[in-house]
């Protein structure tokens, strides 16, 4: 009987995790387009009842904190996929931009939502941040990145270019691949020694 109970608990835990993930994903997609959307709107987008959303996230701030944590996890995974240690550093940063570009809704929401901009989890330096800065320093040393551009300037430049690409696609109807191409072309020219 104990093994059956363990399976039931594991199934319930898996269901809870899937429901929580569905709510967070629906909230990111919805709030990126309409930051004023209510928790009821989030519930409808996630295909659950409003009480279910409140059970997982009693306050809007709880949902926003979960979104922040989710975005940081996705940034860490994207940084890993970009293989920043492979090849010239400038090319590594291009791969990173390609990976981050796919996180547009979540990252746009992070930039545009005051509660998330000031969220304590966003203010801490992460392993992804350190890896980025190390890649820039490597680019300076190997000569693939202009040494006159310091690490923080380049980090801000990358975020600004990504935001510009997301805005270009979102507000002008530019196809995503074209917006990303513009972003990468600009980055290439900006970093050139």
From TrEMBL:
**Membrane-traversing stretches:** none
What's the source species for this entry?
Streptomyces lomondensis
Chain ranges of the HTH tetR-type domain: 17-75
* UniProt keyword annotations, A-Z: DNA-binding, Transcription, Transcription regulation
| Keyword Transcription set for record | yes
Domain of life from the UniProt record: Bacteria
Q: Does the keyword DNA-binding apply?
A: yes
Q: Which residues bind DNA?
A: 38-57
From the Swiss-Prot or TrEMBL record, give the protein name: TetR family transcriptional regulator
């Amino acid at each position: 009987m104990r093994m059956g109970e363990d399976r039931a608990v594991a199934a319930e835990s898996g269901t809870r995790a899937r429901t929580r993930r569905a709510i967070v994903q629906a909230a990111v997609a919805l709030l990126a387009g309409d930051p004023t959307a209510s928790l009821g709107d989030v519930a409808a987008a996630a295909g659950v009842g409003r009480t279910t959303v409140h059970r997982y996230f009693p306050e809007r701030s709880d949902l926003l904190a979960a979104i922040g944590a989710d975005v940081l996890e996705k940034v860490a995974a994207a940084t890993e996929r970009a293989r920043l240690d492979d090849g010239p550093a400038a090319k590594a940063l291009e791969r990173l931009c390609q990976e981050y570009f796919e996180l547009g809704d979540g990252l746009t929401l992070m930039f545009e939502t005051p509660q998330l901009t000031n969220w304590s989890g966003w203010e801490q330096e992460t392993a992804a941040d350190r890896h980025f800065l190390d890649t820039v320093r490597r680019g300076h040393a190997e000569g693939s990145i202009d040494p006159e551009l310091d690490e923080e300037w380049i980090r801000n430049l990358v975020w600004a270019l990504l935001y510009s690409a997301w805005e270009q696609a979102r507000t002008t109807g530019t196809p995503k691949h074209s917006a990303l191409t513009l972003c990468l072309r600009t980055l290439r020219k900006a970093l050139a020694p």
